[in-house]
C-alpha cells in the first residue's frame, strides 16, 4: 500500500495546500509537488477537480481527492500506522472534526479575510472577531502541547498553516496576534520545531509580499 | 451503548433532519427536544456555546455539534446497523466531497431563491439547478448515492427535499422538470420510514418560509 503514485497540485501560499503537505510529511509519504498558476490552471487540475477547479488536489494512483479536510482524513486513513492524526475514540474524533470545521468557518472565513483586505470600521470588527476566535482555540488547546495531545493531530494540521499568514494580518491590520494570544503563538512555535510543519509553511515575509501583491492587483488599499 | 440520547432540534431545519434520519436508520431511540430559536434554551447555550445553533446531539451528557459531524459520530458509534459511510477510504473521500459540496451550495442557493427577487433570484435558481444536475451525475444509475442502501450523501441531501416546494413557489419554477432523476431518487428515499418520518410536510415548510418573509420584510 505504501509506495504508490502520489501527486499534489498546490499553490505555495495556500494554507489549504499546506495542510496536505504537513499530513504527507508526518506520514513520510513521498509525493510529487506540482505548483499551479491559478491564473492559468493546468488541464490536469481542471480534469481532476472539474467541480471547484481549485487547489489543493491530491491525486493518488490517478484518482483525485479534493478539499483539504477530506484529503487530510484520507491520508490519515490510507496510512494509519505512522503519526495518526485523528483520535480513535468516536467522541474525540467528533471534537476534532468540530474544531477543524470551526477553523474553516472562522479563521479563513470571509469575515477574517477582512482583517487584511479592508480598512476602518470593517477591519476593526474583523480583527475583533478574529482574535475572539483564536482565543476560543486557545481555550480548546488548554495545557496540551498540541491540540492532538502529545503529538500533532488533525486540528494542529488544519490550523497551523494560518501561522504563515499571521505576519501579513498583523502588518495589514496593525496589531499583534502574540500580544492578544500568546498561548496560541507558543503552540505555533512548538509546531514549527517539527520538520513536517516548518518545511511545509512558506516564509511569513514572502506571504506578506504576496498579500500586498494581491491587494495591488485587486485595487485594495 | 445506547445510553442517553437527546437531540436539540428545530422542526424545519434540514440539518436537524439529517441526524433524525441517521438515528432512525440505526433504530436508535432518543429524546427529541424542539428549540424556540428566538428564545434558546439554557441547555442549547450550554451544549453549543461556540455557535449556539441546532442541531445538537447530546450523548450521555456530552454534546456533538454540526450535522455532518453528528452523522459521522452516529455511524461510528452504532456501526453494526445500517452503515452510512463507505468502508473503503477512497469511497469515503468521494462521499465526504459531495457532502461538503451540498453544504457549500444547496442551502445558500436555496436561501437566495426564497429571499431574493429579480436578477439575484434568477442567478440563484440557475446555479441551484446546475448543482442538482451535478448531483444527478454523481448518482448516475444507482438507486441511492450510497448504492443499494441509503448512505452518507443521501442522508445529507434528502432533507432539502422538504424545502423544494417552498423554493419552487417562491422562485416560480419546477425542480422536477429540470431534474427528474433527482426527484425520482427523492421519492425512493421517501419510501423509507426513516426518511418519511424525519421530514416535515412540504406545505408546512412553505408556510414557515412565508412567515419568515413577512417577519424579515421580504416581498
UniProtKB/TrEMBL annotation, chain A:
PROSITE patterns, alphabetized: GST_CTER (PS50405), GST_NTER (PS50404)
Cytoplasm among keywords: yes
Biological-process GO terms, alphabetical: glutathione metabolic process; toxin catabolic process
Cellular location(s): Cytoplasm, Cytosol
Single Gene Ontology MF annotation: glutathione transferase activity
Record field: catalytic activity: RX + glutathione = an S-substituted glutathione + a halide anion + H(+)
GO annotations of cellular component type: cytosol
Chief place where the protein resides: cytoplasm
Residues covered by the GST C-terminal domain: 89-218
Domain GST N-terminal: 4-83
Entry-linked Gene3D superfamilies: 1.20.1050.10, Glutaredoxin
Enzyme class per UniProt: transferase
E.C. designation(s): 2.5.1.18
Keywords: Cytoplasm, Detoxification, Transferase
Transmembrane portions of the chain: none
InterPro entries per the UniProt record, alphabetical: Glutathione-S-Trfase_C-like, Glutathione-S-Trfase_C_sf, Glutathione_S-Trfase, Glutathione_S-Trfase_N, GST_C, GST_C_Tau, Omega/Tau-like, Thioredoxin-like_sf
UniProt-listed CDD domains: GST_C_Tau, GST_N_Tau
Recorded family membership: Belongs to the GST superfamily. Tau family.
Name of this protein: glutathione transferase
Automatic annotation (TrEMBL), chain B:
Cell location: Cytoplasm, Cytosol
SUPFAM superfamilies: GST C-terminal domain-like, Thioredoxin-like
The organism of origin for this protein: Gossypium davidsonii
Lineage of producing organism: Eukaryota, Viridiplantae, Streptophyta, Embryophyta, Tracheophyta
Any GO molecular function: glutathione transferase activity
Catalytic activity, as annotated: RX + glutathione = an S-substituted glutathione + a halide anion + H(+)
Superkingdom of this protein's organism: Eukaryota
Name of this protein: Glutathione S-transferase
EC numbers on record: 2.5.1.18
The keyword Metal-binding is assigned to this record: no
Domain GST N-terminal: 3-82
InterPro entries with a match to the protein in the record: Glutathione-S-Trfase_C-like, Glutathione-S-Trfase_C_sf, Glutathione_S-Trfase, Glutathione_S-Trfase_N, GST_C_Tau, Omega/Tau-like, Thioredoxin-like_sf
Amino acid at each position: 500500500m505504501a509506495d504508490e503514485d502520489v501527486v499534489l497540485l498546490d499553490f505555495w501560499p495556500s494554507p489549504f495546500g499546506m495542510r496536505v503537505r504537513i499530513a504527507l510529511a508526518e506520514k513520510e509519504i513521498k509525493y510529487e509537488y506540482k505548483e499551479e498558476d491559478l491564473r492559468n490552471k493546468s488541464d490536469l487540475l481542471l480534469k481532476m477537480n472539474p467541480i471547484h477547479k481549485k487547489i489543493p488536489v491530491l491525486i493518488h494512483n490517478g484518482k483525485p481527492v479534493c478539499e483539504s479536510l477530506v484529503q487530510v482524513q484520507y491520508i490519515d486513513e490510507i496510512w494509519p500506522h505512522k503519526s495518526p492524526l485523528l483520535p480513535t475514540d468516536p467522541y474525540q474524533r467528533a471534537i476534532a472534526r468540530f474544531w477543524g470545521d470551526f477553523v474553516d468557518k472562522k479563521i479563513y472565513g470571509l469575515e477574517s479575510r477582512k482583517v487584511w483586505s479592508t480598512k476602518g470600521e470593517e477591519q476593526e470588527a474583523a480583527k475583533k472577531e478574529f482574535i475572539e476566535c483564536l482565543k476560543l482555540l486557545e481555550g480548546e488547546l488548554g495545557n496540551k502541547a498540541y491540540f492532538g495531545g502529545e503529538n500533532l493531530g488533525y486540528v494542529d494540521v488544519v490550523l497551523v498553516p494560518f501561522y504563515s499568514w499571521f505576519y501579513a494580518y498583523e502588518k495589514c491590520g496593525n496589531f499583534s496576534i502574540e500580544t492578544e494570544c500568546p498561548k496560541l503563538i507558543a503552540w505555533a512555535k512548538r509546531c514549527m520545531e517539527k520538520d513536517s510543519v516548518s518545511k511545509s509553511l512558506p516564509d511569513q515575509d514572502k506571504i506578506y509580499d504576496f498579500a500586498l501583491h494581491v491587494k495591488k492587483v485587486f485595487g485594495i488599499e | 451503548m445506547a445510553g442517553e440520547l437527546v437531540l436539540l432540534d428545530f422542526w424545519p431545519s434540514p440539518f436537524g433532519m439529517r441526524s433524525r434520519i441517521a438515528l432512525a436508520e440505526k433504530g436508535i431511540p432518543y429524546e427529541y427536544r424542539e428549540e424556540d430559536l428566538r428564545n434558546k434554551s439554557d441547555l442549547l447555550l450550554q451544549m453549543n456555546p461556540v455557535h449556539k445553533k441546532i442541531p445538537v446531539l447530546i450523548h450521555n451528557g456530552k454534546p456533538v455539534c454540526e450535522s455532518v459531524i453528528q452523522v459521522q459520530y452516529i455511524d461510528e458509534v452504532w456501526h453494526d446497523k445500517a452503515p452510512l459511510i463507505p468502508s473503503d477510504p477512497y469511497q469515503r473521500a468521494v462521499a465526504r466531497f459531495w457532502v461538503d459540496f451540498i453544504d457549500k451550495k444547496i442551502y445558500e442557493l436555496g436561501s437566495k431563491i426564497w429571499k431574493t427577487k429579480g436578477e439575484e433570484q434568477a442567478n440563484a435558481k440557475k446555479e441551484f439547478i446546475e448543482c442538482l444536475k451535478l448531483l444527478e451525475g454523481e448518482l448516475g444509475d444507482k438507486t441511492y448515492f450510497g448504492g443499494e442502501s441509503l448512505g452518507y450523501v443521501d442522508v445529507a441531501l434528502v432533507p432539502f427535499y422538504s424545502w423544494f416546494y417552498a423554493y419552487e413557489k417562491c422562485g416560480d419554477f419546477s425542480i422536477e422538470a429540470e431534474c427528474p432523476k433527482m426527484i425520482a431518487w427523492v421519492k425512493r428515499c421517501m419510501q423509507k420510514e426513516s426518511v418519511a418520518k424525519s421530514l416535515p410536510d412540504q406545505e408546512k415548510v412553505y408556510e414557515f418560509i412565508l412567515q419568515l418573509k413577512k417577519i424579515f420584510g421580504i416581498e
